[in-house]
Amino acid sequence: MIQWLAEPGLTHFLIVSAILFSLGLMAILSKRNVIMVLMGVELILNSANINMIAFSRFTDLGLDGQMIGLFVIIIAAAEAAVALAIVLNIYNRFRSINLDEISLLKG
Amino acid sequence: MEFSIFGIGILTWLVFVPIVGMIIILMLPDKNRNAIRWTAAGATGIQVILAAVIFAIFDRSKLGINDAESFQFIEKYSWITVEAVPWVGRIEINYFLGLDGLSVLMVILTSLIALIGVISSWNIQKMVKGYFALYLLLVTGMMGVFVALDFFLFFIFWEVMLLPMYFLIGLWGGPRREYAAIKFFLYTFVGGILMLLTMLALYFSVAYTDPATGQSVHTFNILHMMNPANYVEGGLLAGVDTTWRYVAWMALFINFAIKIPLFPFHTWLPDAHVEAPTPISVILAGILLKLGTYGLLRINFPIFPDATIYFIYFMAVLAMISIIYGALCAMAQDDFKKLIAYSSISHMGIVVLGIAALNTQGMVGGVLQMFNHGIITAVLFLAVGVLYDRTKKRGLYDFGGIANQMPKYTGLAMIGMFAALGLPGLNGFVSELFSFLGAFEAYKWITIISVTGIIITAAYILWTIQRVFLGKTPEKMSDLSDLTLREYLAFVPLIILIVLLGVYPAPAIELMNASLSHLVEFMNSGG
Amino acid sequence: MFTQIPLTILLLPLLGFILLIFFGKKLPRQGDWLASGLMLLALIFSLVLLITKLTSYPGETISTSFEWAVVGEQTISFGIMIDNLAAIMLVVVTLVSTLVHYFSMGYMKEDVRYSRYFAYLGFFSFSMLGIVLTNNILLMYIFWELVGVSSYLLIGHWYEKKSASNAANKAFIVNRIGDFGMFIGIMILFFSFSTFAFESIFDSIAAGQLPFGSTGWLTAAGVLIFCGAIGKSAQFPLHVWLPDAMEGPTPVSALIHAATMVAAGVYLVARVFPMLTADALLIIAYIGAITALIAATIAITQFDIKKVLAYSTISQLGYMIMALGVGAYTAGFMHLVTHAAFKAGLFLGAGSVIFAMHKVLHDMHDHHTDAQDIRNMGGLKSKMPVTYWTFLIFTLAISGIPLTSGFLSKDEILAGTLAFSTLNGHWLLPLIGFLVAGLTAFYMFRLLILTFHGRPSDEKRISAIQESPYVMTIPLVVLAALSLFVFYSFNPFGASSGWFYAAMERPLSIVPEMLQPASGAVFYEAVSSVHTPAMILSILIALGGIFIALAVYHWKKISAEDLSRKAGVLYSGSANKWYFDDFYNKVFVGGLFLVNKSMKWFDDNIIDGIVNGSAVVTQGFSAISGWIDDNIVDGLVNATATTADRAGGLLSKIQTGKVQTYLVYIFFSVLVLFVLFI
Asked: Residue B83: inside a domain, yes or no?
């Protein structure tokens, strides 16, 4: 067990990434606040990044994984900017960023 | 005879100037009522000028009727041509206009009455733009029918008239306008369908050989339909005195009889007249009714001479019934407009009696009666309109002593009334005279019975004059103003024509004499 | 000469009409001088024409024509024809018209439509002259109707009165009935001979052509044309309009309804005389005789001064017609001329009396007394001497007393009927002729006595009566002079030697020989053999009539009341005009209205009922097919739609609109898929 803990391998990273993904998912599904939901999205993206880099390190994927990780970071930055702009607009429109109150598409 | 302006023939101008006017009116703003009115007056005014030109240069000696060469102001362009349709061959529909002695008087009448109608429409206040736009469309339709020589074109113009008339009665009419408009529409539409069927039957039965290509071509050309040699072997309407030819004749006859209107197809007329606004009544009685008799002469007679002669006695009897029956019904009316409507039935009966005589006097009398009746009823409806504008009443018993109130109006209206009564020296007499003279040659007893109609006519007209113009003035009618300048403008040209043609009808008769003589000859040799 | 002058004569009154209609009110004196002056000019021209005609071209017929219209191959020409008949008639018309114009200046002075009145007089004169001058039966028909309409306008001159406009309508419509026959006659002639001109028609008949190839139709054509005369000359059975026409101003009655227009019928018969067959003439003679008798018997019981004169006019017209019918052509036409003078005079005299009565009644503010009822007059002789003496001359003339013009013509007519009966055995005609002569003398003297002699009905009223002004009395004097024999024949006891007989020779009959009446020569021989007895008899009968009238009304030897009571049915029949008007009103007018109303009902309910019924039936069908469409065809379509709609409703519950809910769905779906497929 100690041995397993002392020698971090691919599995460890994947486990961390899975935990991170689950936390992100929980935030997205349960938080009322849009900002929190966005932060959940960031967590999920970063869990994916961890996966990419771990695969880059422990398999023969090579630098490609790191490149994709970098790419994801850039995309995440852009996404955050767009998403915040949308949030700002939602706030202007509804005077609220509570997702429960924003249900125009209710059937 | 050719006459064109900017390379476009005079008849096209005549037919489409109102359409141009209509487009201009549609582009004008709603508010600018006077511009709309003046545009309409301008368009119809141009028509009158063109008609005057036609009157001046029309060659009185040319025959027309069935001979394309002797028509005048001809315009013939290929309009719709479809090559090599299975079974049918080449389809050809032409834009074919022309004038002969039969139509020239009607064209003059139409342009004149259309202008008078615009003048008397001047005080229409409701939806002026729509009114005049529809009015001009109506004028185009009527003018088109009188000059079209292609059956398809004829039919299109015929149906073009229908819609504006429906709306003009249905929107601008009196209290029961919807009922009247629908009645008018349905009656005419039923006739239109009968005509459409006959037209198609004729189309498939008639084919002429194109001299250029040697092809056998089906055609809607009315003149080709008059030539027995053009009928396809085994075609539905080929031959002489076949049942199908009788059926086709009857279908067309019913269509035209509805328009004339002949007993028993007449009941739309009183309703339409009573509900229609004054200028529309003027148009309706002045021109629209003539389309029926014109159609008989242009289509029924020369295309089916055999069937015409077969049914001619029937026609004369219907005419006789219309004359007497219309006069009797007119006498029983309390409503001024209804009275004139029934008198129209009676007077149009004289037209039919005249043309049913199948001799020149009768034909000339009949066609002249079409023209004269158009002018006379226009005057009568204008006269009713003048009173209605001032008092909002039309009942014959509502009036009295108008002669004291409005002496000048009374004078003019009474000339119109006396013309309707057939007083010699006024135009109605001349045409009635020739109609009866011609008819007497063909049907002694029918004519003698019909002539009693003029006694009844005298009775109801004089009785009307007595009730409306003579007697003491009721108190509620004590301050009526005499005619305005605009009303004079509408009345005076018609009154002048009434007197002129009554004293010296030769200018009108010589326009049509050659053509109608030719038609009589054609009928009697072809049947 | 014979084109321009007649045309000028014809157009002068028309010019007056046009000027007065348009400018009448603006002219000084409302233009009466213009109308009268033009008429006087026409009179002068007519006299010149007559004298030239009789002196230079005595036996000729001069006609000119111009083309009116060409129909087919046929040319219809109108024109002017001057023969002695036309030339004499021209003078009669223009003369009476001129005098009536001047008389009207006084009589109509206060009228509201003064200039209109003169305009219509001009229009009438124009139309009447047209009848006289035309060479053509169609043109004659045209003017025939035009005099009808001017008569209509003048009868209805005081159209505020219902009775006036009723009378005008009646006159026109009754005339139209006669004209209907005339029109058919014209059609027969035109159909047979393709011409309207008298001369051409006569030529064709003379050449042996017959309408429809039958002699019966020739007679029919003659009788039908005579129908026009029945209407216009108020012959039985269409005489009913003339008494009512007295609603018009009295000078109008004198001009139109006594002297000229009503005589147009006689003129027409004279015009077409050559083409009338013996049968047609016999019918004409009997119609005239019946008319003369009926009207004379009605006249003896009337109390309205104008009504008496109206019936006497009808009676005298009957005489003229009868004369033409028996072949006494010249006598009939001569009676027209003499009658025109004395009857116009009688009417103008009556007008003068009525004028005076009106004035007095008006001054007395008496609006109930009838100014025309002879019972309200009496004793006017001394108050209105000129009117009285002229009236006396006219009365003598109409009664047929020697030295008057009436004697000359009436005597010849009676001799003619007597001669006719000796030739053909129709003894009823002379019997009626002589009877009517006696009746005429009786009722005319009754009128004269009741009006001018005897005790005044109301002293105050009658003493205020004044003689009419000169403008009214001078025409009376002129007409009185013309009622003397000298103007027609220098022999006071026989007209046949005078210029009139010389100028107006009876035209030869041109119908086929077997249809001809007794020829002129035979007839005149018979006339000359009975002339003297007829003359003596007629004088005696006239004097007898006068004597009875004097006995009853002047000397009061016989009570008029007793007489009327004894006459019983005869009296009430006469006083009620033999119930002609009631009969016509009930049967024809009532019948016509019944027919009208039933036709209207038929039109509104049956014909329109069929139309509306077919609409209702169509609507019913459309309702049924509409129901089918709505419930069955559309039902299926709607069922589909409803199912889809319901399903959608259920499913839409899932759509909460909350992003996170959707995400949960996605999450669990992925989980499920994960479990299922991996």
From this structure: no
